Automatic annotation (TrEMBL):
UniProt name for this protein: Uncharacterized protein
Species whose genome carries this gene: Dyadobacter sediminis
Amino acid sequence: MINDLKRQIVVLAEKTKIFRRIYCAYKRSGATDFPAQVQSRQSADIFDLPKLGAPLPYFPQFYFEDCNYYGILFQFLNYANIEIGDKNLPLHEIYLEHGIVIGNLVRTDSVSLAKKTLTFSSYRAKFIQEKTGKVPSQVGPYIHYCEGLLDAKALSEIKESLGRVLLVFPSHSIGAVASEYDKEQFCTEIEKRKAGYDTVLVCMYWKDAQNGDHEYYQNMGYKLTTAGHRDDLYFLNRLKSIISLSDMVISNSTGTHIGYSLFLNKPNYLFKQHVALVSKSKSGDNLLNQHYHPEVTSTKERDNQLLYDAFSVFEEKISPEQYKLANYIWGFDQIKSPEELKSILLN
């Protein structure tokens, strides 16, 4: 009963801007070394999994946690030339979907609390409006709004050492939910497809690198990389450089990486494989309850199948049909100029 009362108080309090400011400031006060840690990782080798995948202290610059993930809103502000202290910036009233969501699952609580919501495309905007009555701003693939972490010289040198690259994105865990699949089966498929490539480069999610899931791929002789911890402000920049090194992308589940790599002109192949989501805590149970709601499941399965059908052939080119579907889901035609994004964020 006491916990329920506390939650009710928080629900009421978080509607106020002052609560959100105090909450974020309090959390940041316990993580004063965060900026230094992020700065250190910015210059780290992109193949240094132990360093890049290591825990980071929670340092919320924005109230809605999704805005802090992958440095997305931080990069948006840089792109639009907005200072984080700009008095016209509704700092703790912006919500964005931190990655593509296939199907009609919507964080209605966050959208309802936010002054403005950002998403990728009309595909997502339709679901958000249906569930909340609010019209979000569409901005296309977030990876457009950052520079690659590696400069042209470093990128060229690494590319020369790697040769032709088959980039692998394994299905990854989500917070308190683990992604479990047959790695032997997936690697058998990778082995079948790696002919003609000099390097198989596996991009591990930070959580799975911490869990030791990278070891199977390491034992296969593949080269490993990671875009970094979820809270790393330069996650997107690092991911952009990693994708830029590739010639072909293969994955065993749908995800944001498909739209990002297509947008960066990298062909994709989707290997359809059973992936089980397994809860590791009570919060994981809640996430899975939402994930497996019948309405969500039906739309997710329907739209995932569109992607599996479109990317079922291993071919090093992007077909018009693939581009059209990716544009619909990720909003390639919704890219904003710095001035346009600035207007969205400040007005």
